[in-house]
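Hey, I'm writing a tutorial for new members on how sequence and structure tokens pair up, and I'd like a real worked example in the thread rather than a made-up one. If someone can provide the structure for the chain below, I'll link this post from the tutorial.
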Amino acid sequence: MKILFIVLLLNLSCTMTSNSNLSNDPKLSIHSFVCEDINGQSYDLSQLKGKKVLVVNTASKCGLTPQYEELEKLYGLYKDSNFVVIGFPANNFMGQEPGSNENIAAFCQKNYGVSFPMMSKISVKGKDMHPIYQFLTQKAKNGLEDNQVQWNFQKYLLDEEGFLVKVISPQTSPMDASIVDWIKD
């Protein structure tokens, strides 16, 4: 019973808001979700209305981990231009994010000076996939396409209305022209 309670509690770290009127819209918006940030505080994604959003699943022990530096640079350059990066730590790929939220936050600050919002560690695939990633990966929910999270640092671009517009490969640099030009457009 204790394990079931813990699993249920973990699955609540990112949920849909109850006041959303979703039945009139065939696709959801990222603004429909409330998540838990890396410090355990509620983070209502509706506060991102009017901003372009890059959502990325992160890991501290991955060959792509240096992308934190580029994500922070991108965020620093465009955060005042209605753009935000949201990081979701996940341990779905070869155990490359084994740490607790506290360990992850300390690692990100110490090594990369991360100032963009980081959420609590979640699952981005499998039976315990969190609702935000169900939205990002299922066409029935995002209205754009079905996709799978291929690896750490896969990027999702969402427009000012919170709708998915593009999925970017994990290997693509956050500073790639396809991302920067989209932010500037």
